[in-house]
Amino acid sequence: MAIFLSLSPHLPPNPPQYPNPELKFPLPPTPKTVLIDTKTSKRDLITRVAPFLFISSLAFSCPTAQCLAEPLPTPKPLLSGIANTKSWFQFYGDGFSIRVPPQFEDVMEPEDFNSGLSLYGDKAKPKTFAARFASSDGSEVLSVVIRPTNQLKITFLEAKDVSDLGSLKQAAKIFVPGGSTIYSARTIKIKEEESFRTYYFYEFGRDEQHVAMVAAVNSGKAIIAGATAPQWKWDDDGVRLRSAAISLTVL
């Protein structure tokens, strides 16, 4: 997801909403203010943002890796803020690891494994969370979902890299819900022992929620990490949420 060299904590302003249901790529104006009932339970908040979860700093998780990026659709500034996550707890799941922001709690529960909630549009309707963490008030959530790639895109060959699902722009139709406004998208290449592994990064907004997502593929399985929060909280917490999503590492 040399892109991560920009460590400025300032984030790009949120773009206006458009009536066209197609994905939007422009960057632009001010975020809306959203009020949340303080009486709302933590579980209710997590439930509200769950559909946006599923569906992921050079110093964060690949200190020796070479990261390359290419912007979409036209050259724009590099990611506006990445935090050093080396001191964060590192969660190891089935074929992946991810850094968890401080004070986030593990919120995996039996019913979460078959939530039936969709983050990525019609072609990807996840049923299983491979990992799920939330802030103390439940308004910010980090989750990981693993899906067979042949459920995301019909193919006779086993996908070995996310690029097998299409280009960064083509894959956005799989991973990003229709009607979303994309603020940023990047291709990240991480140097491994014998080759480079590709990660796709998307940051987008939809229905008052702001999402940072990273997707990768390994042996026919798509591993997708999503970090989400209300738009009004992104200015304060967007850097750490984006950093958590980008810390996704395929093992």
From TrEMBL:
Transmembrane segments: none annotated. Gene3D superfamilies: Mog1/PsbP, alpha/beta/alpha sandwich. GO terms for cellular component: chloroplast. It comes from the Eukaryota. This is Photosystem II reaction center PsbP family protein.
